[in-house]
Amino acid sequence: MADWKSRVYEKREQIKNSIPPGWVVPQDALPPNSQLDVTAFPQRCRMLSSKELQITESSVTKLLANLADARWSSVEVTTAFYKRAIIAHQLVNCLTEIFVDQALQRAEELDIYLKEHGHVMGPLHGLPVSLKDQINIRGIDSTMGYASWIGKKADKNSVLVDVLESLGAVPFVKTNVPQTLMWAETFNNIFGRTVNPYNRALTSGGSSGGEGALIAMRGSPLGVGSDIGGSIRIPAAFCGLYGLRPSAGRVPYAGCVNSMEGQDSVLSVLGPMSDSIQGVKAFMQAVIGARSWMLDPLVIPKPWSNDEYNLVNHNNGQNLCFGIMWNDGLVVPQPPIRRGLEIVKQALLDAGHKVIDWQPIKHKEILATVDGIWAAADLEDYEAVLRDLKEPLVSSMTPASVDADGFHPGVEFAADGISAFELWQLQKERRALRTEYLGHWNATASATGTGRPVDAIICPTAAYVAPKHGGNNSAAYTKVWNGLDYTSCTLPVAQADESIDVDTRNFVDEPFLSLNDKTTSEMYDARTSHGAPIAIQLVGRTMEEEAVIKMVEIVEVAIREYVMNKGATPA
Amino acid sequence: MADWKSRVYEKREQIKNSIPPGWVVPQDALPPNSQLDVTAFPQRCRMLSSKELQITESSVTKLLANLADARWSSVEVTTAFYKRAIIAHQLVNCLTEIFVDQALQRAEELDIYLKEHGHVMGPLHGLPVSLKDQINIRGIDSTMGYASWIGKKADKNSVLVDVLESLGAVPFVKTNVPQTLMWAETFNNIFGRTVNPYNRALTSGGSSGGEGALIAMRGSPLGVGSDIGGSIRIPAAFCGLYGLRPSAGRVPYAGCVNSMEGQDSVLSVLGPMSDSIQGVKAFMQAVIGARSWMLDPLVIPKPWSNDEYNLVNHNNGQNLCFGIMWNDGLVVPQPPIRRGLEIVKQALLDAGHKVIDWQPIKHKEILATVDGIWAAADLEDYEAVLRDLKEPLVSSMTPASVDADGFHPGVEFAADGISAFELWQLQKERRALRTEYLGHWNATASATGTGRPVDAIICPTAAYVAPKHGGNNSAAYTKVWNGLDYTSCTLPVAQADESIDVDTRNFVDEPFLSLNDKTTSEMYDARTSHGAPIAIQLVGRTMEEEAVIKMVEIVEVAIREYVMNKGATPA
């Protein structure tokens, strides 16, 4: 047996053993594989007390309030979420590292702190926070799905973990990713595949797909993902969550493992995922407030701004004007996403805001530049890790490509990177495109009627709701904003409904925009999509985290009002 | 004759013709070549009226005040500086582009604006500002010393020029640079060599050497240079000025020409040079206040902070603790610089501040990483420009290498860049070094006695005062801060004095640190250095522009007090 396989078997055994026996779902209580929607299982499985259910179904806001006034102890809250996380894991396979004792010990320390000092340790006091596998915690593996990295326990915390601990949070599990992180689904040879809680035949998205599935199961109130091309927003969208991709330099990344380290151009960033925008805000405000530029040289010393959150640069949030991008000029979204955009448009109009069409420019060129920059040396980067154990490079997310032991056979590949000079030319082109797009945005001032350019862009997060495993073949709707380094946040709007999401696209008058457009259109299956969360993305300018969060709150309230009054079918 | 040479002759002729005949210094009035210090020439040449002398010897603060209340018109002020700039040019060869009519027309528009509106157009109203050659002004060449770029007039303004104009400034000349900008002296085949006004046998430094010489001659009150490894600070230091290298992302760079475009790691930045720190502040506060992140996607949306200027993070400027780096572990500075550091130390102690020694760590590694990143593809970059006209690459700043027509013969070279993957490894290493240095800085908290890490580092700008042409062989003392992206500002302390700057270094007990150290030590010639400005550098953290400016003000006042009381010989 190959050395890498024996390591994997050992690791799998170790994970199994790290689950407290009492938290194992009995074989006969597990839902059958044919049961696709497992979101209701935790409530029904009788493994969680009513208080544990109450805790795990509370919002971050409520959790923090109850933790702060000691109504709930951190040990209680952490235990409840840990149990639920492990139950969830047995249904959707979302976890990588489990360390119950360590987390509960930390929770207990926080309870003692609160008792002794009479005040919280920080704004996230007592809150369990789940972390994407790559985020180093001292003494725990960060394998990122590489067999070669099994047993290489982190010798110190990543900066973010130190910061979260200083804020009072309780890091309690690590979550699944695709090998290399450079896929928009979640499968690797060690931990296998994470599936979507709303429909296990569908992908949870990726690369932060473990987080997406876990939080959707309410196995964590708040998680941290990373996003280089959509890896926070895609799983958040597919799993019906809120997920923020901050601009580079707002959340500390130092001390995590990653792919393509040293690639200084289109950077991966860490950001929050939660089932409320308030959860996202709590994370960002606390983490930025921790002044982590004193710890990570790539963090911009830009404090959290309440002025910006209160939209002082956006008419204080009154009479905003949004630009809706119905498609990116490359692929028209499938019917559920089109309905999602229509709902948002109507909701915003009803709430007294303006909406104009956003014209995409040069998305194809931006995407090509981003792809080119990564491809400059991505294979060399993977090869440098894989060669140790002659471990295969996972080259597909399709279930058919995986054998009975959960292994992907891998592909032969030759690292075929480009020269530094060629890379510089791509980076120069990217800068020119960023400048052009900025001018394009500014020029909308003549069309909004508000005297300002559009306040934010509303667009799809993906052209579809969660597709079948192996079917998520494009990250174009998210990656373009990484290329431009724009703050973007995804939010849920409704759920796909086969009875109303009927394809009415007029192919006679509107020919396909591209081959991809044709494929995407043909891929649509109203039956399979039924019930999957519909999400849209709200996009602000670079470093507009505070404003984007506030505008998502505004949109969310508008959607809720609209749906309450008129249902989820736009006029 | 080579095509590139004929273009150069044409360009030289055109520059000569752009000087108004009345501003040409008569041949017999020019100082003889043997006269080295020409700083007093403008006062004595009788070509400037007493009012013009008064204007050109006023500080930026006074100029802005007198312009704002219409005591002096912009036309008067611009004319005075233009005349003096052109007189200076005939002595130190500092200009590249001259456009008198355009600048005076702009000045007149500003005078009319003030009259009509009763208020200034912006905080730099009416002030002439000189620009390094690479900063694009619509309709004017930006050759950067490349014959190939002669006649390629910019089709639009750089963002900074648009911003300066919106602030009321009057861009009025462009200034000389070395070909490629990647030298710390100033010579190219088109415009020739810029010399130091304090001693024309010495270099003005580079690459913003035209700015340094011009401002030292009071031919401009405020100039803009660029700095990728010291190119603002070195000429500012050699010419007795204040020069700030801001962190990347504070001053808009978009729309300038440059070397190595697309190199996204160790970035060139634009910054101010002036003969007062108040001039530096006026520029930074105005430019940052213009919110140019709306125009240049690489500008960080971080507004000017009066809190940071008032040192709220540094005990409000009281009882500061500075770390003095006496040498960088590689090269011990020559006697005048050592005296400069001693003066600053004594001055700060007298002013009630603390001073501890700064231990440099890993400067050699940081410098190697920076050099490696540039060398990844620098030659390919130059080659892409030079091949058009088979123009030579200038490979030395030594006068002996230049022929009677002012041409450097160039060198054969083979572009020998590295792969993108190799570049990523260097960039990864740089990030690790930045993280380590940040930790090192933070760790000084245990040694300062203030409860804070050192508030700033004080160190040499170079190991020597301005050396002879061709002798500036290292930018180590500045480049290390580019590698770390720390805010740094150089300020003048005194002038070299052969009677006191005697080398007392004890070579018996303290052996040379390196071969470079030995060369630098042997190079010292008290006679030649006599009269040259001594400068030091104040270094803050990334993005601490406001705080660095304030601390330079504090140091400057302390030095002035000290010298007034005790002279320029430290105890």
TrEMBL record, chains A, B:
PANTHER family hit by this protein: AMIDASE (EUROFUNG), AMIDASE-RELATED-RELATED
Gene3D superfamilies: Amidase signature (AS) domain
Protein name (Swiss-Prot/TrEMBL): amidase
Family according to the record: Belongs to the amidase family.
Binding site for substrate: 181, 207, 228-231
Active-site feature positions: 132, 207, 231
UniProt xrefs under Pfam families: Amidase (PF01425)
Catalytic reaction list: a monocarboxylic acid amide + H2O = a monocarboxylate + NH4(+)
Keywords per UniProt: Hydrolase
Organism of derivation: Cylindrobasidium torrendii FP15055 ss-10
One GO molecular-function entry: amidase activity
Major enzyme class: hydrolase
Keyword Hydrolase: yes
EC number, UniProt record: 3.5.1.4
Keyword Glycoprotein belongs to the record: no
Entries under PROSITE patterns matching the protein: AMIDASES
